[in-house]
Amino acid sequence: MPEFDYDLFVVGGGSGGVRAARVAAGHGASVALAEEYRVGGTCVIRGCVPKKLLVTGAAFAEDLRDARRFGWCVPDCSFDWPMLRDEVQAEVTRLEDLYRDTLARNGVRAFHQRAQLTGPHEVELADGSRHTARTILIATGARPEMPVFPGADLGVSSNEVFHFAQLPRRVVIAGGGYIANEFAGIFNRFGAAVTMILRGGEILRGYDADVRARLLEISERKGIAFRFHTAFERIEQRADKTLIVHTDKGDPIHADAVLFAIGRRPNSAGLGLEALGVEIGRTGAIAVDEDHRTRVPSIFAVGDVTDRKQLTPVAIREGHAFADTQFGGRPTRVDYGCVPSAVFSHPPIAAVGLTEAEARERHGIVKVLTADFRPMKNALAQRDERALYKLVVSGVTDEILGLHMIGPDAPEILQAAAVAVKAKLTKAQFDATVALHPTMAEELVLMR
Ligand code: NDP
Fold it and tell me: Whole-model pTM?
């Protein structure tokens, strides 16, 4: 009789958990996975994937308008929100099925129930059954933080926004981070009046200042209203179901929907972790070492529940490294340096490496080169919207320390350039690369 029912029990079927389960099973481990909701996690079910599809759907608003400048006779078009919403959900369901197939094909036993830990090697499922495992992996992700003030429950989080029965005509968005800016762009292009309410004075803290300033300028020009240094006081609902948002500054705002996008909290509560001695930080993040091991030797954690970098590809890397290390005989650690990231705002932002401010602080002498240009398509479309690319270069070694971009397709372009930045290529090597003309990306090798 084996000592345990499974070699590995994964709690949470999102990006990190599914990757870890699949790879561990591939290494010959017997693996079970519990997921209380839909398989795929935030990214597939109510994050990156449906969001990107909405971004793509929203982009047609301007493309259809611009097409006229390129000679196309475009009749007046209207937008059908329920159709896009339902198509997006159908795609989400298709992807969820693929995730389920992946688990099944790899011999992972999936339980569609909530799980909690009852011992360092034991998991109890909602149906009361108990299962033992040599190793337990917590990959339960994070959930939207919701504020507390009178009427806050009249607002929604990014979980609900994909399911609106009707497209709101007026949207108030709380926060100035990833989700706030992405949905501001989406609703703005769908024709809604968007007001963003920020507690501080800046959007997208952590991104390069010039790139953020460019997004703010373009967003305001598109009609998105920003209220900085503003706090919610209360939200009231009128008889016709519309909302009135009261803040500590300015007039009340009439809205059809309020979206809270003020960060995401690790899902670590109610799993029985504290009782077993697993250390949980102030924000709910599970503390782990470089091998994703908690203070309890048989319990590990990866992904958003550890609140290191809340990004899908990072969770996937962590899950993969965990499985290779624990079950594949291949000790692997995740390299958190030069992780590229993108905000699918309108236009999108993409970045890798150090911002100018970080580089100056850490490296002293830095050179900054910028390309500030109007993309060819925007010029013909008479769209006064400029892209900005910025290279941050070491003044000592000539190494590219950071690349920051805002403009059409910036994330697509940056992914390839991130290889060069990660490889510590120099500005001279960028200069030695012949431009590919006419593209926006050629600006990367033409900055002098
Ligand atoms: P972010 O951390 O990006 O931004 C949070 C925003 O909310 C900030 O503007 C912050 O202000 C503000 N805020 C924080 N707490 C409060 C509060 N109590 N009251 C009012 N405002 C507050 O969070 P998101 O929710 O947008 O996204 C969560 C995470 O999900 C991101 O950090 C990212 O890692 C991930 N994500 C990634 C995406 C991508 O890769 N494209 C897309 C969406 C999400 P301040 O600046 O003052 O702190």
Answer: 0.97
Q: Which of 179, 226, 249 to mutate to test the pocket of ligand 1 (most atoms within 8 A of CB)?
A: 179
Q: How far apart are the first and last CA of the chain?
A: 69
Q: For 392-443, how does the pLDDT look when each residue is reduced to its tens digit (9 = 90+)?
A: 999 999 999 999 999 999 999 999 999 999 999 999 999 999 999 999 999 9
pLDDT one-digit tens code per residue, 174-200: 999 999 999 999 999 999 999 999 999
Chain-centre distance for alpha carbon 114 = 24
Domain of 201: which CATH number? 3.50.50.60
Q: Answer yes or no: do 163 and 239 share one domain.
A: yes
Q: Which domain holds residue 398?
A: 347-445
**Minimal CA–CA distance to 176: which of 235, 220, 242, 233?**
220
Local structure of 111: helix, strand or coil: strand
Nearest atom in ligand 1 to 180's CA: 26
Residue 261 CA, closest ligand 1 atom number:
25
Using a 6 Å cutoff on CB, does residue 411 contact ligand 1?
Answer: no
Distance 425 CA to ligand 1 centre (A): 32
Q: Do residues 436 and 363 share a domain? A: yes
Active site residue 437: yes
